[in-house]
Amino acid sequence: MFDFLDSGQYDVLGAFWVTVQLTLYSAAGSLIWGTILAGMRVSPVPLLRGFGTAYVNLVRNTPLTLLIIGCSLGLSQTLGIDLAGDTFKETGFRLAVLGLIAYTGTFVCEALRSGINTVPVGQAEAARALGLSFFQVLTLIVLPQAFRAVVAPLANVLIALTKNTTVAATIGVAEAALLMKEMMENEAQALFAVFAIFALGFVLLTLPTGLLLGWVAKRVAVKR
Amino acid sequence: MKISKAAAAAAVAVALSLTATACGGSDKAASDGGASGGAKDKIVVGIKYDQPGLGLKTPDGKYTGFDVDVATYVAKELGYQPDQIEFKQAVSAERENLIANGDVKFVVATYSINDKRKERVDFAGPYFLAHQDLLVRADDTSITKAEDLNKKKLCSVTGSTSAQNVKTKLAPEADLLELGGYSECLTGLENKKVDALTTDNSILAGYAAQEKNKGKFKLAGLSLSNENYGIGLKKGDKELQTKINAALKKMVEDGSWQKAVDTNLGPANFKSEPAPQITEGS
Predict the structure, then answer these.
(1) Chain B: nearest CA to A180, how far in angstroms?
(2) Contact flag B93-A73 (C-beta cutoff 8 Å)
(3) Interfacial residues of A (vs B; Cβ cutoff 8 Å)
(4) Distance from C-alpha of B189 to C-alpha of B69, rounded to nearest angstrom
(5) Candidate from B117, B164, B184 with C-beta closest to A182
(6) N or C terminus: fewer CB in 10 A for chain B?
(7) Taking Cα atoms as reference points, which of B241, B260, B269 lies closest to residue B54?
(8) Which of A141-145, B77-81, B236-240, B272-276 bottoms out in mean pLDDT, i.e. has the lowest?
(9) What angle do CA A151, A154, A158 make, to 5 degrees?
(10) Which chain B residues contact residue A183 at CB under 8 A?
(11) Quick count: other Cβ atoms within 10 Å of Cβ B34?
């Protein structure tokens, strides 16, 4: 049933490696971008707050497929922004990471904002009374506690991101979903076997993430 | 006692499913028409919805294209009038399943005959010989043979046979972009981000012939592969296969075949091959 794997025609592990890379780059990027967005949304400057709110509500409610295709058709093919990629392979990968960061960043931001709400308001007031600036209050007092409160929600975002990387196949990034399409075109007689391989692959990627981060969440949570 | 009950239930279920499949996927028509008893009068045919010139569902719900004309002709020979045909979308990856499950009677959807596919379905035909080719901008003369492609930027559809051909055989060094649909490739081709769009020449001709693309693109005219389009049908249905083959033969002989090619693919200056010899089943 799985004999088509022996032909050497399909590099399943290689495809999943691209999926992992997409996930890791996008996770790192969206953690940074999400933190900046969360900082904007709680900042005392109305313009930043307005931008943060508008961005999060706009991008979060746009389908990811639309964002990724927009990156490819709009940015790359129409405006000629290739993010310094020489081949379509490089360009596609970078555009996909860009799109995933833009999208996932909003979910990181909202998770983090809920974490900020768990920090008692007295902490920020006390910090301000000591003469700390807004930036110092945020980075030294509030965010360190907020992050420890939202490890579990962030794990959910990470798992969703892992699965969302499959959308990158629509702009030609050679990850798992693209290989699956190729195999389905060729191996119609083993449709369910192909499906099972890729379903299993994603379970193997996401299940350990959830278990590990669930354990971390319990370890680092601030007991109040 | 329990076992015999279960066996009886199973027998009923099998009998029901047999009667349901016996009408060849017309159960949708049956549910639409209620108890009117007209279920047998419909035939469900799988076509592509997104390929101009071959199989296209227009915004007003009509179907046009060469595959549609062939399907209509064959259905007529099988005894169904055009208003008794129900078209169903058959995307590439699902064609075998639609046929094997009995959701459609047959599939006319740029369906290349090959051995892997014959493991699950049978074919009638071929009714058309297409070749993998390139669509380039109208003023581009830099591509004359397959080797030229190694220095070019190409675009095709994710996972398609043409894309795989480029990667493994034709031009492994070419910079290949795989997108969700051929029309998405046209954006890049127009903006000079890609040099050529590759797939079967019949499909390319359909795009080049579209009103909004007239004069912008042309076919490079390379025959990079042979794709014999067949009509997919349920494995082992020799009777239907013979009937469809006869219908195709008649379509070629009475000139309807050439007419359908000319009206659907002609505007792109597409030089089609003569109708291929029928090789399947006979």
Answers:
(1) 8
(2) no
(3) 69, 72-73, 76-78, 80, 87-89, 92, 169-172, 174, 178, 180-189, 191
(4) 30
(5) B164
(6) N
(7) B260
(8) B272-276
(9) 130
(10) 159
(11) 8
Structural contact between residues A72 and A84, judged by C-beta atoms closer than 8 angstroms: no
Q: Is B135 helix (H, G, I), strand (E, B) or coil?
A: strand
- Is B177 an 8 Å CB contact of chain A? yes
CA distance B167 to chain A (A): 11
Mean pLDDT of B56-81: 90
Q: Give the nearest chain A residue to B154 (CA atoms).
A: A88
Handedness of CA B2, B3, B6, B12 (dihedral sign): negative
Q: Give yes or no for B159 touching A (CB within 8 A).
A: yes
φ, ψ of residue B242 in degrees (nearest 5): -60, -45
A41, A49 contact by CB (below 8 A)? yes
Q: B176 to chain A: nearest residue by CA?
A: A88
Are B236 and B122 in contact by the 8 Å Cβ rule? The answer is yes
Residues of B (51-70) whose Cβ lies below 8 Å from A: none
Looking at residue B187, its amino acid is: T
- Per residue in B153-206, pLDDT tens? 899 988 888 888 888 888 888 889 988 888 888 888 988 889 999 999 888 888
B212 CA to chain A: closest CA distance, Å? 18
Spell out which residues of chain A touch residue B153, defining contact as CB-CB under 8 Å: 88
- State the pLDDT confidence band at B9, using cuts at 50, 70 and 90: low
Three-state secondary structure call for residue A81: coil
Do A191 and B97 make contact, defined as CB atoms within 8 angstroms? yes
Going from the C-alpha of B201 to that of each of A19, A152, B53, B221, the distances in angstroms are 33, 53, 11, 8
Long-range CB contacts (within 8 A, 24+) of A199-203? A201/A12, A201/A16, A201/A19, A201/A176, A202/A162, A202/A163, A202/A176
A84: pLDDT confidence band, cut at 50, 70 and 90?
Answer: confident
Q: Which of B122, B116, B123 is nearest to B228 (CA)?
A: B123
Mean pLDDT along residues A19-47: 96
Reply yes or no on whether the pLDDT at B133 is more than 80: yes
Alpha helices in B41-113 (DSSP H): 66-77, 95-100
pLDDT tops 70 at residue B18? no
Is the Cα torsion angle A171, A177, A183, A186 positive or negative in sign?
A: negative
The pairing of beta strand B55-57 with beta strand B50-51: antiparallel
B10 band by pLDDT with thresholds 50, 70 and 90: low
